[in-house]
Amino acid sequence: MRRTGRGRYRNNWYRSKNKGNINSDDSSLNNTSTSARVTSTAGSSRAPANQLPIVISVGTDLNNIWKLYFPSDEKGSNETVAKHINSFKLYINKNRNLFDLEKIDQTHSVPLDVQNLQNDDEFIQEWSSFTTDLFENPVTTLSTLEYCLHETLNCAVKLKVRILNHQPVIPIASLKVNYFGKLVTIKGTVIRVGSIGLICTSMAFECSSCHSVQAVIQPQGVFTAPNFCQSCNSGVKFEPLQSSPYTNTTDWQVAKIQEIQSHSISGTIPRSVEIELQGDLVGTACPGDVLSVTGIVQVRGESKGGEDGKRAARLLQLYIEAISIHSQRNLSNPTLSFTLKDYYAIQEIHGSDDVFRLLVHSLCPTIFGHEAVKAGLILGLLGGTEHENGPRSNPHILVVGDPGLGKSQLLQAAAHAAPRGVYVCGASASAGGLTVALGREAGGDFALEAGALVLADKGVCCIDELDKMKAHHSSLLEAMEQRRVSVAKGGVVCSLAARATVLAAANPAAGSYNSQRLRLKPGEEIDNLPLVLLRKYIAYAQRYVHPKLSKEAATALQEFYLELRHNHDADPSGGTPITTRQLEACIRLTQARARVELREEATVDDANDVISLMKHSLIDTFSDEFGNIQLSRSINGSGVSSKSKLKKYLEALTRQSHQLGKDIFTRQELIQIHKAAGVQGDANDLIEAMHIHSYLLLKASNTYQLIPI
């Protein structure tokens, strides 16, 4: 028998001559290739410290419901438990409509809302200590509830209770050893999900002396053998029996959740804790999900340090044995809830004279000016209206400016203002750190580890120093457009949701941005919103406001889009292509502008504000000396027309590609072609400009592919 690093026995058994089967919960797994016996001794695997093996009597009927939940107690021996059983049975009979028998038969579990129990006066009168018992002694309390449900609902299999709406929610950072053995509820983001295996819950043993059989509970999956034979009282050697009906296994999986970044203390590593999933809970956790987990705090021993396990420090690690899981995968802001005071504050903000102006100046008030940039970030935080099976609703914002203008501070402020925000620096981020990584567990199985974009699902991912990410731009393309990231490594093929808005900052080769819009008048003061209130307002707008375009707003955006198309068609030989993506971006920003004022309809004024903001973002780069927008001008920040240089250089590259019969070039080869063609200007600047224009595709470090026109 092999055991994983966490002390969990998987379905890797030694083989013997006899073939058998393993029971999974209530039924046997027939036609397995596992052996019938596993050779072991009581001296090699004892019960956990301070805990005697719990032996199940095998002489009684297998259908004894009481022994399924209380294997070491006799029925009726505890009057308090009997009183609690009667009170809960009365509650079940009175609320039969709350229990879906068909679903219970499928999942072998029963969802139970504890708030309904606590609000039932008759039940609380009979079981006044229920809330305390559930927190202090969850194992006995849950077994009592499960026994009552099994017997009252006439179920054929052993049931598990899934506790719902358990309060209070404890921060992961506050989870200490004083909660050991208690029932707690925590909330966090899934950062790692392991593979699915089997865990043994009870195992039958045969005495080598008298050949009698006895079953032993395997606490937390730790291999536990009997201390002595109950028949002959002298046996010391026992053989595990796989094929016995008293040997049971169930599905098992380990996931790790991390405290939400907005709830963690700045400058510290976010706390994380492992959760163990069993039965129907297996497979419910996905990297990037925000989960509310209710479970029992347990500990496991782990060795650290020493050579080959000798003189190693014995450490205890907390983990949670999950009882129930509530996923908030489809909520736009699953990490926030609203109180009555929040609603009053939001109503007061909504009643301001100029809400948009107030929000703009409340975002990173330590940075003076840059109102247009702040306005773009606010619209990016709010996003557009999501439609089922429609185009994406989240806009992506790129902030370009000279070093030292506060771009990093603006992005950090946006990440903190977002209900769910993640901030990373592109200079030090890897492709796996941005999307998803595939790691190995202690037993050799693969585990998915969520990256920044997956952790920011339904939120905002702020990427600083985007221009420093020379080799990882391709990692962002799928997440930004398809709203997911795919993994195909080590035989694992899957895709994870990454429905995040990307707010990025980059340094251009030259040029700068400033704006006169939304600035305060001389001597004017404004009361900025606190960061917490700004986050609440954004979360409220995202959750409850879903604006649609009015006909006038749609007409204004259409005219602006046609104007851009006309300017591009007038000079089709160069410049950034104008497609429906620009139109969709304008629609998303217009819907976000309406969300600022909590309106369900985006008006023509909203559209005009967005058009003005779009034009402002194009003026420095795409405008000529007469103020007209020309999309054929360079977008590398210089503002100097380079159409002829790009065209001449592209023609030279195309000829060289036909002559050599290849389309992959290194940067050094591109520089040599530039020099041989006699094209004016810096070769590196032209290479970067062609890369931005999608004439060159970065395949690897300093290696590009020429895209045919």
Automatic annotation (TrEMBL):
It is found in: Nucleus. Pfam families: MCM (PF00493), MCM8_N (PF26065), MCM_lid (PF17855), MCM_OB (PF17207), WHD_MCM8 (PF25051). GO terms for molecular function: ATP binding; single-stranded DNA binding; single-stranded DNA helicase activity. GO terms for biological process: DNA recombination; DNA replication. InterPro entries: AAA+_ATPase, MCM, MCM8/REC_WHD, MCM8_N, MCM_CS, MCM_dom, MCM_lid, MCM_OB. One of its GO terms (cellular component) is MCM complex. Residues 36-45 have a biased composition (Polar residues). Residues 355-537 form the MCM C-terminal AAA(+) ATPase domain. It comes from the Eukaryota. Residues 21-35 have a biased composition (Low complexity). Its main location: nucleus. Keywords: ATP-binding, DNA replication, DNA-binding, Helicase, Hydrolase, Nucleotide-binding, Nucleus. Residues 1-45 are annotated as: Disordered. Its EC number is 3.6.4.12. Belongs to the MCM family. This is DNA helicase MCM8. It comes from Bombyx mori (Silk moth). The lineage of its organism: Eukaryota, Metazoa, Ecdysozoa, Arthropoda, Hexapoda.
